[in-house]
Design a protein that fits this description.
Helices cover about 40% and strands about 20% of the residues. The two termini are about 25 Å apart. It is built from 19 helices and 19 strands. Helix 10 packs across helix 14 and helix 15 packs across helix 18. By secondary structure, the protein is of the alpha/beta class. Strands 1, 2, 3, 4, 5, 6, 7, 8, 12 and 13 form a 10-stranded mixed sheet that branches. The protein is globular, with a radius of gyration of 23 Å. The structure holds adenosine-5'-diphosphate and alpha-D-glucopyranose. Adenosine-5'-diphosphate binds next to helix 1, strand 14, strand 15 and helix 14.
């Protein structure tokens, strides 16, 4: 039996962990919140799959790893799935990388079915089995998004794990991804009781919906901003799932994300050509110059540079961006985008680039160092999201003095405030989700840019915001403590 002690013990169960594996903001949160929680006195540890390249990146980062003598096992699909446990302390957070055949493919499958969903179910059961192998038993399993939603389901409905009485939290980073697939042969092969498949649990229009199951089964649910916590209870936001979220609202809270402010810091950032700070902004001009050079634009241009760093998926509103290409070019600003994702959006952006090569540049792909150059070298950060659970990019851009232009939705509404409000603000916002709405805010930003004094004031307002985890880590700790009552 694993030992227990009186301090609060939380196991983060996550399929992304920056800087070792990251697709979007979930990786950032899993990589930074545990550090803040540890500082707040919570004994938090992290378990994550060792996807291809993860251990190599850990080694390159100079982490000292040890392989545990015991392995961890899970029964699934009439087979025993085993994994090696590779432990490392990541900034003092004990982290367990699970290495197994199950995690040797792409991180996220393009098509979901029983077989492609299997690594996620196996991962959750191995996380539940970890306690004996490491002689440390969590009080709470803290799960993130559909990829670890099998864990609360297992604690509620698995023929073995439901006897263990564990508690779980389901944090919703993005309700648009739910882990939906055909029930056969999942119902026979997962170990979940067949009676757990009904409309008030994980059944969803005849399909399995892991996220829905996780929401119903978890002891508590949180999401990543107060506004998104309200939005997801509406049909407009989450369609059929909104009813479930409304039903479960008494156990739902919205806690805004923070940033790893040491990592995202223009003062110490080693991947930008010059550093800068609130007190001395000079280095930002050198970053802008280098960015213009990389994009193939005139490096002496004083036109404002609009930047975007984003997954190119429907959520992020890039159809508005490429449909507004002509109007953006006519403002005289340069637009530099870094991102990859759905073909139709990449193609729309490529088309915009070839129509306006003097004004628009797309860097296609995922490139961490280049993203820092965009945040540091840009003047305006454009984020016209259709929906946005929290959004980290607008906060990162503000840290680097790049003024955000965002739609008033989800976490963007909780972090960016329009400068033209009587009380002032840190960016430019718009509400209507169309080209006219976006251009109304973007034009105001481009015009304001030429008023150097006013612009500097907005930049400094953003740079001085507190984006640390301090406050939100306290709210998570409170949620853990409430669960232990
Ligand atoms: P989401 O999680 O929905 O993608 P967030 O704003 O919460 O949105 O977080 C996005 C994170 O991913 C940020 O750290 C951003 O810098 C990073 N990112 C997104 N696209 C790219 C890219 N193409 N290259 C490098 N980093 C990226
Ligand atoms: C999701 C959301 C994003 C949020 C991130 C981290 O990917 O799309 O808004 O910031 O998770 O919580």
């Amino acid at each position: 039996m694993a030992s227990k002690s009186s301090s609060l013990r939380v196991l983060f169960v996550t399929t992304e962990l920056a800087p070792f594996s990251k697709v979007g903001g979930l990786g950032d949160v899993a990589g930074s919140l545990p550090k803040a929680l540890r500082q707040a006195g919570v004994d938090v540890r992290v378990v994550t799959p060792a996807w291809p390249g993860v251990l190599e990146r850990a080694e390159a980062a100079g982490l000292k790893t040890t392989t545990a003598r015991s392995k961890v096992y899970a029964a699934y699909d009439w087979r025993i799935h085993s994994a090696n446990i590779i432990k490392a302390d990541v900034d003092k957070v004990p982290t367990y990388f699970l290495k197994a055949e199950d995690y040797s493919g792409d991180m996220y499958p393009s098509q979901l079915n029983f077989w492609t969903a299997s690594p996620f179910a196996v991962f959750c059961m191995q996380a539940l089995e970890l306690k004996d192998a490491i002689d440390w038993e969590p009080d709470i399993y803290h799960c993130h998004d559909w990829t670890s939603a099998f864990l609360p389901c297992a604690l509620a409905w698995h023929r073995h794990y439901r006897q263990t009485g564990g508690k779980s939290i389901m944090t919703l980073h993005n309700v648009a991804y739910q882990g939906v697939f055909e029930p056969s042969p999942f119902l026979d092969a997962s170990g979940l009781e067949p009676w757990s498949f009904n409309s008030s649990t994980m059944e969803y229009y005849g399909q399995v919906n892991l996220l829905k199951g996780g929401i119903v089964a978890a002891t508590a649910v949180s999401t990543v901003s107060p506004t998104y916590a309200n939005e997801i209870q509406t049909y407009e936001s989450t369609r059929e799932l909104s009813g479930i979220l409304y039903q479960q609202r008494s156990k739902l809270r919205g806690i805004i994300n923070g940033l790893d402010t040491k990592f995202w810091d223009p003062v110490g950032d080693k991947s930008i050509p010059a550093n800068f700070s609130v007190k001395d902004l000079k280095g930002k001009a050198a970053c802008k110059k280098e960015l213009l050079k990389r994009a193939g634009f005139d490096t002496e241009s004083d036109a404002p540079v609009i930047v975007c760093v984003s997954r190119l998926v429907e959520q992020k509103g890039f159809d508005m961006v490429f449909n507004a290409a002509k109007q953006i070019a006519e403002t005289g600003a340069k637009l530099i985008v870094l991102g990859s994702g759905q073909d139709w959006i990449e193609n729309g952006m490529l088309q915009a680039q070839s129509s306006y090569p003097q004004s628009i540049k797309l860097f296609k792909g995922y490139d961490e160092p280049l993203s820092h150059l965009l945040y540091a070298g840009g003047d305006i950060f454009l984020m016209p999201s259709v929906f946005e659970p929290c959004g980290l990019s607008q906060m990162i851009s503000m840290r680097y003095g790049t003024v955000p232009v965002v739609r008033e939705v989800g976490g963007l509404r909780d972090t960016v405030f329009d400068v033209d409000r009587p009380e002032g603000g840190n960016g430019f916002t718009f509400l209507t989700c169309d080209v006219d709405g976006m251009m109304w805010a973007l034009r105001r930003a481009v015009e304001r840019y030429y008023d150097k004094e006013a612009w500097k004031k907005i930049m400094l307002e953003g740079m001085r915001e507190d984006f640390t985890w301090d406050k939100s880590a306290g709210l998570y700790k409170e949620m853990y403590e409430d669960l232990m009552q």
